[in-house]
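Q: What would this chain look like folded?
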Amino acid sequence: MPIDRDNLRDLLTALGIIAVAMLAYSLLLATPAHAQIAVTDPPVETATAQTASELNATNKTLAQDLQENTQTAQSVTTAGGAGAWQSNAGYFASLASNISPFGNRTN
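A: My prediction, written as structure tokens:
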């Protein structure tokens, strides 16, 4: 079938009108789509809850470690005070005085 160059413009105009009509029909008269809002996957949710629980426990442990490490760092870097240590010199002197009245017996 030969193409009539005189009627080509009319053919393209008709195709354009049909395309616009089809687009308008599909946009205006189409039924709305209903999206699925929530999807549940019990194995994944269980694994996620377990991971969250483990991370929570790890965070608590790290917070305790940070507190203990901070206390240790402050105790070894803060000047002044001898800490809990007390000299045993007085105790040893009393032991020596308790032993000395008996003398040094070898027999």
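The chain is about 65% helix and 0% strand.
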